[in-house]
Design brief:
By secondary structure, the protein is α/β, with parallel strands linked by helices. The chain has helices at about 10-30, 45-60, 75-90, 105-115; strands at about 35-40, 65-70, 95. The protein has a 3-stranded parallel β-sheet, with helices on both faces. The longest helix has 22 residues, at about 10-30. This is Bifunctional methylenetetrahydrofolate dehydrogenase/methenyltetrahydrofolate cyclohydrolase. One of its GO terms (cellular component) is cytosol. It comes from Caldilineaceae bacterium SB0675_bin_29.
Length: about 120
Amino acid sequence: MTALLLKGRETSRQLQSDLAMSFAELAAATSVQPTLAALQVGADAAASGYLRAIRRACQGVEATLRPVVLPEESSQGEVKAALTELNEDGSVHGIMVLEPLPDHIDSTQLIDLLS
Protein backbone atom coordinates (compact mmCIF):
# COMPACT_ATOMS: atom_id res chain seq x y z
CA MET A 1 0.00 0.00 0.00
CA THR A 2 1.33 3.42 -0.96
CA ALA A 3 1.03 6.25 1.51
CA LEU A 4 -0.67 9.42 0.34
CA LEU A 5 0.58 12.67 1.83
CA LEU A 6 -2.29 15.06 2.41
CA LYS A 7 -1.45 18.74 2.30
CA GLY A 8 -4.13 20.99 3.71
CA ARG A 9 -2.24 24.25 4.10
CA GLU A 10 -3.13 25.64 0.69
CA THR A 11 -6.79 24.64 1.11
CA SER A 12 -6.78 26.20 4.57
CA ARG A 13 -5.28 29.45 3.27
CA GLN A 14 -7.84 29.61 0.47
CA LEU A 15 -10.74 29.01 2.89
CA GLN A 16 -9.39 31.68 5.23
CA SER A 17 -9.05 34.13 2.35
CA ASP A 18 -12.58 33.38 1.10
CA LEU A 19 -14.05 33.80 4.58
CA ALA A 20 -12.19 37.06 5.17
CA MET A 21 -13.54 38.40 1.88
CA SER A 22 -17.10 37.25 2.64
CA PHE A 23 -16.99 38.78 6.11
CA ALA A 24 -15.61 42.07 4.73
CA GLU A 25 -18.39 42.18 2.12
CA LEU A 26 -20.98 41.48 4.82
CA ALA A 27 -19.59 44.25 7.03
CA ALA A 28 -19.53 46.72 4.12
CA ALA A 29 -23.08 45.91 3.01
CA THR A 30 -24.76 45.64 6.40
CA SER A 31 -22.41 47.08 9.05
CA VAL A 32 -22.56 43.65 10.72
CA GLN A 33 -19.29 42.45 12.24
CA PRO A 34 -19.32 38.62 12.43
CA THR A 35 -18.89 37.74 16.10
CA LEU A 36 -18.14 34.40 17.72
CA ALA A 37 -18.51 33.89 21.47
CA ALA A 38 -16.43 31.22 23.18
CA LEU A 39 -17.53 30.12 26.65
CA GLN A 40 -14.86 28.55 28.85
CA VAL A 41 -15.44 27.38 32.42
CA GLY A 42 -12.28 27.11 34.48
CA ALA A 43 -8.67 27.28 33.34
CA ASP A 44 -8.17 23.85 31.79
CA ALA A 45 -5.01 23.93 29.65
CA ALA A 46 -6.65 22.20 26.68
CA ALA A 47 -9.62 24.59 26.65
CA SER A 48 -7.26 27.57 27.03
CA GLY A 49 -5.17 26.33 24.10
CA TYR A 50 -8.29 25.87 22.02
CA LEU A 51 -9.35 29.43 22.85
CA ARG A 52 -5.96 30.73 21.66
CA ALA A 53 -6.38 28.81 18.38
CA ILE A 54 -9.90 30.19 17.94
CA ARG A 55 -8.58 33.71 18.56
CA ARG A 56 -5.95 33.27 15.82
CA ALA A 57 -8.56 31.87 13.42
CA CYS A 58 -10.90 34.80 14.08
CA GLN A 59 -8.08 37.28 13.53
CA GLY A 60 -7.27 35.55 10.24
CA VAL A 61 -10.77 36.15 8.89
CA GLU A 62 -11.32 39.47 10.70
CA ALA A 63 -14.16 38.15 12.83
CA THR A 64 -14.65 39.35 16.38
CA LEU A 65 -14.07 36.88 19.17
CA ARG A 66 -15.90 37.44 22.44
CA PRO A 67 -14.32 35.12 25.00
CA VAL A 68 -16.29 34.51 28.19
CA VAL A 69 -14.23 32.78 30.87
CA LEU A 70 -16.04 31.78 34.04
CA PRO A 71 -14.39 30.54 37.25
CA GLU A 72 -14.01 26.78 37.73
CA GLU A 73 -16.40 26.88 40.68
CA SER A 74 -19.25 28.44 38.66
CA SER A 75 -22.52 26.58 39.19
CA GLN A 76 -24.54 24.95 36.43
CA GLY A 77 -27.04 27.79 36.81
CA GLU A 78 -24.37 30.48 36.46
CA VAL A 79 -22.97 28.84 33.34
CA LYS A 80 -26.47 28.45 31.87
CA ALA A 81 -27.19 32.13 32.62
CA ALA A 82 -24.01 33.24 30.83
CA LEU A 83 -24.85 31.04 27.85
CA THR A 84 -28.44 32.30 27.75
CA GLU A 85 -27.20 35.90 27.77
CA LEU A 86 -24.90 35.18 24.82
CA ASN A 87 -27.66 33.31 23.02
CA GLU A 88 -30.00 36.31 23.34
CA ASP A 89 -27.37 38.84 22.22
CA GLY A 90 -28.15 39.75 18.62
CA SER A 91 -24.57 40.85 17.98
CA VAL A 92 -23.31 37.28 18.60
CA HIS A 93 -23.58 35.07 15.52
CA GLY A 94 -22.10 31.86 16.88
CA ILE A 95 -21.31 30.33 20.25
CA MET A 96 -18.78 27.66 21.14
CA VAL A 97 -18.75 25.90 24.50
CA LEU A 98 -15.14 24.91 25.13
CA GLU A 99 -14.45 21.53 26.62
CA PRO A 100 -13.41 19.93 28.80
CA LEU A 101 -15.80 21.39 31.33
CA PRO A 102 -15.46 20.87 35.09
CA ASP A 103 -17.01 17.59 36.27
CA HIS A 104 -19.95 19.32 37.96
CA ILE A 105 -21.11 20.96 34.70
CA ASP A 106 -23.47 18.96 32.45
CA SER A 107 -22.54 19.83 28.87
CA THR A 108 -25.70 18.33 27.37
CA GLN A 109 -27.82 20.85 29.28
CA LEU A 110 -25.69 23.67 27.91
CA ILE A 111 -25.83 22.47 24.32
CA ASP A 112 -29.61 22.17 24.57
CA LEU A 113 -29.73 25.93 25.28
CA LEU A 114 -28.08 26.90 22.01
CA SER A 115 -30.33 28.10 19.22
